[in-house]
Amino acid sequence: MDHRKSPEGCKTEPIRPGEKEQRMKKFNELNAYRSFSWPEMAPQDWLMEIISLAGLVTMVCYIIYHYPKLPGSVPNHFDFNGSPDTFADRNQVWILPGLSIFLYVLLPSVMRLRLSYASPRFLRRVHSQKQFNGRVRLLRYQKMIIVWGLFYISVSLIRFSLHSGNGLGIWFLPVFLSLLIIPSISILLFLKQNP
User: Fold this and answer.
1) Alpha-carbon distance 32 to 16, whole Å?
2) Does 13 share its domain with 108?
């Protein structure tokens, strides 16, 4: 009969029938992530990465070029209609490129960590390497949309500060959210139906 040590270390108690099999099943579920690998980058993946990186570089260069011309205060927040409603010091323009760089690095890192420390709940949702590859590709798409959305906000902020723009425009938020959410839902539904 199998025995295990109790927390005190001096007494032993028998393992209940079927418990060993349950532990092995849980162990196998926890280690199933080893069958998943980080996907090779296809041409469309490279294209999305290049477009995202181009957005980051363009945003930083645009801000560096226009920074000396900015007034002391720039828009800090836009209302639902895309018009500025609060203002702050001009150094605030560096927050958006910083956020973009942070997200550009963070999003893939989170997915890699998710792969390294996969839980049974995550593994039940991701049934195959194909599904995992699709989720990584979706992450790259979302990253690209977020970087270019933040770039557009930076350009609008600077143009408004230099009196050559009217803010984001009423259409920015619906278009940005549509580009981010609708493809994400359709891709996840497609992956769910085609494991």
Assistant:
1) 25
2) no
Question: Quick one: tokens of 7?
Answer: 């927390």
| Measured distance CA(191)–CA(195) in Å, rounded | 6
- Count CA atoms within 13 Å of residue 10 on its CB side: 1
Parent domain of 188 = 39-193
What's the structural domain count of the chain?
2
Please give the model's pTM, rounded to 2 decimal places: 0.71
Q: Which residues, including other chains, have CB under 8 Å from residue 86's CB and lie 6 or more apart? A: 75, 76, 77
pLDDT tens, the chain, 195 aa long: 445 555 555 555 666 767 767 766 665 655 554 455 666 788 888 999 999 999 999 999 999 999 998 888 888 888 877 777 888 888 888 988 999 999 888 877 777 666 655 555 555 555 566 777 777 888 888 899 999 999 998 888 888 888 877 777 788 888 888 998 888 888 878 777 776
DSSP string for 31-77: TGGGG--PPPPPHHHHHHHHHHHHHHHHHHHHHHHHGGG--SEEEEE
* Shared domain check, 149 and 72: yes
CB neighbours of residue 125 within 10 Å? 13
Q: Based on the fold, state whether residues 116 and 24 are members of the same structural domain.
A: no
